[in-house]
Write a structure and sequence with these properties.
mainly alpha, two-stranded antiparallel ribbon
Amino acid sequence: MQLDILQRILIFSVLPKEGNLLTMKTLRSLKEKVGFSEEDLDKYNIRLEGTNYKWDASKDIPVEFDITEGEVKLIKTGLKELDTQGKLMEQHLSLCELFNVE
């Protein structure tokens, strides 16, 4: 699955903060995959300005990630919870479309 920088950042915003052992192991695996390494931070010039993340958009080319069914389920569950609570934002739409959340 290909993800751009914004999608990678947004995934972290929809993941659970707590859960059972299987959920936490799946969460850790997903974070290790889509998280940003020091090399990524330098390459894309990712930085926090105030409360917003900024990066060099000219270098923002989607990267391929091998995301498991369990990891997809975590992301979809988080997006559905935001939808149910009426807390989805426009920036979440690309994730909803990517993960087929209706």
